[in-house]
Amino acid sequence: MLRDGRFVKEPPPKIGSAYVPKFYQTVTESNHVIEKDTRWSQFYRNNLSSFEVGTWMIIVYTFIAVLITGLRSLYHILLG
Predict the structure, then answer these.
(1) 6-59 pLDDT, tens per residue?
(2) CA 4 to chain centre
(3) What is the SS3 assignment for 22?
(4) What are the CA-CA distances from residue 40 to residues 11, 29, 32, 56, 67 (Å)?
(5) pTM surpassing 0.70?
(6) Per-residue b/e over 41-77, b at no fewer than 16 CB within 10 Å?
(7) For residue 33, is it within any domain?
(8) Number of structural domains in the chain
(9) Of 17, 36, 45, 57, which has the fewest Cβ atoms less than 10 A away?
(10) What is the DSSP code (8-state) at residue 18?
């Protein structure tokens, strides 16, 4: 820089001094939904396997089928 016709030495610019890596950025209030979704998906990945989910689906489907069959037979016995 020139001042009064003389060269004045100044420190070199710090390139990237305003950059903040993502690791150090804080979570804002608006990201709670995304944060909850991420937490629950992490829980499901760690604690539930696809085999368990499939097993529960088959059990519930079988229970509903047996219940409907029982209600039909009860209906035919009482009214038929």
Answers:
(1) 888 888 878 877 776 666 556 555 556 666 667 767 777 777 777 788 888 999
(2) 61
(3) helix
(4) 50, 18, 12, 19, 32
(5) no
(6) eeeeeeeeeeeeeeeeeeeeeeeeeeeeeeeeeeeee
(7) no
(8) 1
(9) 17
(10) T
